[in-house]
Design brief:
7 helices, 7-stranded mixed β-sheet, 5-stranded antiparallel β-sheet, globular
Length: 291
């Protein structure tokens, strides 16, 4: 019987996306690489635990859970998360940023300065610009200011990000248009915390890093992994946690967070044998009241 592996997630390095596995194994992913795996027959997806600790009850979880945690472990993870406002006394400096994921999809967020642009790659931001840098609470107040005054959200569902990747403008200049406009409105607002140091507009584009230039439009996304199911496809692009895989029936998007908690074994190839949600025709995703 083939050895089973447990995926611990997709990470972004200077060289590109890397699948990581329990035990420390890493699988660098290059365009054209074939990604093939099968969920062990009869397998059950188990909670991955929280903060580096295994789930004490080894709880079973839904195949559609992107968090891959049971309710109790998810609560413990959020309790120590800056993103979920679980940490208020982090002494590190933080960046405030504007990120763009496709037509009409702009968000504001924060990330530790020491992380550089890693957070933006992890979220699948097509382009972004820094707004400023300062203490955590100053960054939080600036984020809230933009949410309240300009109605810029701090979260955008991944389903919306995936649905618009096939409709990206061709040039970096065009892709930066929306965050440039929001940036201009943001710097004209009053009420910025004095401890936050503003930064000039400079759009950083990730289309090349993600391999999205000229990539075929995806027909849909894998909804969940199921016991005995399999997937095999050639990697044509990646963005955030998503892999765009060219299978015999067309390109499908796999959210690698769905792989966590399953025991996976090699697959010989063939059609996608997991449930797939097909994308609808691209729609106008422009956020009401943003511009």
């Amino acid at each position: 019987m083939a050895q089973a592996w447990k995926c611990s997630g997709l990470r972004w390095s200077a060289q590109g996306p890397v699948l990581t596995w329990d035990g420390g194994r890493r699988s660098p992913l290059n365009w054209g690489k074939r990604v093939s795996f099968q969920v062990a027959a009869g397998g059950v997806r188990q909670c991955v635990g929280a903060r580096g600790h295994p789930c004490p009850v080894r709880a079973g979880i839904s195949g559609r859970s992107a968090g891959a945690r049971c309710e109790e472990c998810a609560r413990l993870d959020r309790a120590h998360s800056v993103a979920a406002d679980g940490v208020a006394d982090d002494p590190r400096p933080y960046h405030v940023y504007l990120a763009w994921f496709g037509p009409g999809l702009v968000k504001v967020g924060i990330t530790a300065v020491e992380r550089g642009s890693a957070r933006l790659l992890e979220q699948g931001a097509v382009c972004f610009t820094w707004l400023g840098a300062g203490p955590l609470m100053a960054a939080r107040r600036t984020e809230e200011l933009l949410r309240a005054a300009l109605r810029v959200p701090d979260r955008i569902p991944y389903a919306e990000k995936r649905a618009v990747r096939a409709a990206l403008p061709e040039t970096e200049e065009e892709r930066a248009d929306e965050i440039r406009e929001v940036y201009g409105k943001a710097v004209r607002l009053g009420g910025w915390p004095e401890s936050l140091t503003p930064e000039p507009f400079r759009s950083v584009d990730h289309v090349r890093a993600f391999g999205l230039a000229g990539v075929p439009a995806a027909l849909g996304e894998v909804r969940e992994l199921v016991a005995g199911g399999s997937l095999s496809g050639e990697l044509v692009a990646a963005a955030g946690p998503d892999l765009h895989l060219a299978a015999p029936s067309g390109v499908v998007v796999l959210d690698t967070r769905l792989m966590r908690g399953w025991e996976l074994v090699p697959a010989a190839g063939g059609e996608v044998a997991f449930p797939v949600r097909h994308f609808e025709a691209p729609a106008d995703h422009r956020q009401d009241g943003l511009f």
